[in-house]
Amino acid sequence: MSDPTLIAGAAQLGIELSGAQAQQLIRLLDELDDWNQRMNLTAIKERSAQISKHLLDSLSVQPFVQGERVLDVGTGAGFPGMPLAIVNPSKQFVLLDSTAKKLKFIDHTAQLLELPNVQTVHTRAENFRPAQRFDIVLSRAVGPVEQFVKWAGHLVVGGGRLLAMKGRHPEAELGKLPSGWKLAAVHRLNVPTLDEERHLVEICRSHDRL
Ligand code: SAM
């Protein structure tokens, strides 16, 4: 079963979902509901809110997901990493969290939905030492921007971007970036069906060209 609100919302974001992708996104929510009966994965239980706040909110950063390798830091139950992996099958997604039980849900669902481009890592971001760094390191709802840069800055390639998904404009957090990093931009995100403010903070190394 696909969902007309999801398909129309994704189209508004410039994403033409295939029938298979629309089904995978809805099955992701079905599995979330199922697992949520046994463990606390999400407080958002109503389907229309899940479509807005989990699926379309995750997909709203699609224009900024560039390069081949993407890391989602503090992915929780897989947001924004899972929806983005579904619509970007040619990119590699690593979904990292310090809580193992949520990653079990992601491993199970990635297998069920046949997503070979999803890999999970159980560690704290600041302790992660991958063999290869990432073009994009992104996070949603994982603490202040300054802390995100401190934890995850070492994980992004030169010229790559750290992307922090935020609600209201995080003015107060932006003056305190660690040295070696600068603000590239703050983008206002419009999430279809969601009447709430959303922003994306884009950060790069001080010497990177904007
Ligand atoms: N990104 C998901 C979302 O928006 O639905 C989950 C957000 S949840 C509020 C924050 C998540 O970040 C938790 O799952 C927590 O375990 C994880 N987390 C917090 N600090 C972390 C760190 N230093 N390294 C890895 N994961 C971390």
From TrEMBL:
InterPro entries: rRNA_ssu_MeTfrase_G, SAM-dependent_MTases_sf. GO terms for biological process: methylation. Its EC number is 2.1.1.170. The keyword Cell membrane does not apply. Its main location: cytoplasm. It comes from the Bacteria. It catalyses: guanosine(527) in 16S rRNA + S-adenosyl-L-methionine = N(7)-methylguanosine(527) in 16S rRNA + S-adenosyl-L-homocysteine. S-adenosyl-L-methionine binds at residues 74, 79, 97-99, 125-126, 140. One of its GO terms (molecular function) is methyltransferase activity. Specifically methylates the N7 position of guanine in position 527 of 16S rRNA. Belongs to the methyltransferase superfamily. RNA methyltransferase RsmG family. This is Ribosomal RNA small subunit methyltransferase G. It comes from Steroidobacter flavus. The lineage of its organism: Bacteria, Pseudomonadati, Pseudomonadota, Gammaproteobacteria, Steroidobacterales.
